[in-house]
Each structure stands twice: as C-alpha cells, then as structure tokens.
Design a protein that fits this description.
Helix content is 30%, strand content 18%. It has an 8-stranded parallel sheet with strand order 2-1-3-8-7-4-5-6, sandwiched between helices. Helix 1 crosses helix 7 and helix 3 runs parallel beside helix 4. Bound molecules: manganese (II) ion (2 copies).
Amino acid sequence: MSVKVLGFPWDEMSSYLRGPAEAPARIRAVMDSGSSNLCSEDGLDLSASQDFEVLGDMPLEAGEQAVAQIEATIREFLGRGHRLLSLGGDHAVTYPILRAYGRKFPQLSILHFDAHPDLYEEFEGNRLSHACPFARIMEEGLVQRLVQVGIRTINAQQQAQIERYGVEVFEARHVERNMRIDFAGPVYLSFDLDGIDPAEAPGVSHHEPGGISLRQALDIIQKIEAPLVGADIVELNPRRDDHERTAAVAVKLLKEIGARMLATPQSKV
Ligand code: MN
Ligand code: MN
C-alpha cells in the first residue's frame, strides 16, 4: 500500500469566490520551498518513505464532466492498491472521490472538519455546489457514518438534514483539547480549511470566526486508531492567503494525515 498525493484544480462549484483551483500547486510549492521538512510530529519522515509519493494535478474538463473524471481517477488508483490524499479544489471534489471510496470500502466512516455542514440539498440551484457534497454522499448511502467537527453555521435547513441522515456533529463551541473520536472501521478524512479559525487559516473563501485551532484538529487526527484509508484537504484559496500561512497549514495537515495513513493498519480493512 502506498499513499499518493494528487491535486484536483477545480473550483467551478464554489458559490462565493474562485481561487481554490490554484491551491494544489501552491501547497506543493510551499512543501518544496525548504521552509520546513516533511517529518510528522511522531517522527515519520515522509520524504524518506517509499510509500509516499506527491504527484501533480489531474487535468480536468469543464463542468459536470469533472465529476466523472475525478471518480474514475480515484477508482483507478484504488484498484491498483493505492490510497489517495487529494488536494482540492473546493469541497465539491469530495462527492466524486467518495463515489469511488464508498464502493471500495462498504463500512466506511467520514471524519469531516469544516465550519459548514455542507449538507444543502441544493445551493442556488446547484446540486454539485461545494455546499452540498455531504448531502449527495448521504443520500447515495456511500458511507455508514458521518462525523463533523468544528461546525458553526447550522441553520434550520441544515439541522433538518443532520437529523435526516443521523450526522454526528461536534460543533466548534464544544471541541476541547485532546479530543478523541473512536471509529470501528475504515475512516476517510475530509478537511475543509475553513474549519480552522480564520485567524490561523485566513486563506479560505468563507471566513467564519470562532473556529477550532489547528492544534485541536491535530489532536483528533493523531488519535485516530482505525485504518485511515483516504483523505482530502480542500478550500485553500491562495488569493486570500497571507504570506502563504494557510498553505503552510495545509502542508502541516498533509504531513500529519499522510503519516496517519501510513501508520494505521490497513490489513483490517
Ligand atoms: Mn466544506
Ligand atoms: Mn467550509
């Protein structure tokens, strides 16, 4: 098993600002800049691992064709025994990724960090909007369980969706230090950078103050004991970033998530 880092430069489904299509290249540039090493905090040097490979961007067609392309790409990588750490792009990438993952891993759970539940049935007439991926995933039954962390924008419509799909929500106001969330089966981690407080991660389209810290998120990620079989890091908007601080947050997450993917036992999957 090896982990492949793949970029999806796609922000057509963003409801407010464009820019996340530029994110994967920016994340890789910061990773390669020499400002830090590729060691996770538990000492795994990803640059020395033969099971960790950073690939480039997947070229995508315009419009809905990108959905089919992303799904087919992920399916192909999974079929070869690889695990994907995908770089968005906006959060719309997660639906096609999960169409491939959900079929490969029938007992899958999602751990989802975000300021927003992203559970709208449709948003401004678009069912593929970055505000909707988890509605699509849940209505298609692609996962057994959806756990959301850092949420702080629940309205009545999204609350109804949370109840309809039995979503487990740890709102930002209830997240503490050293939190642990237990999972029985394989886990897919979807990380929207706006889940982190904008003071720490300003380079996102939707600033939502009152967020969790990166440290709180890392606490949860580092305590995952179930097999972490895939992940995405989405919604970096380089046009809104400040001295690439948010790109550096994405690189930090990439290191810690990559290390967890390599460290957690995949044999039980
Ligand atoms: Mn999101
Ligand atoms: Mn969000």
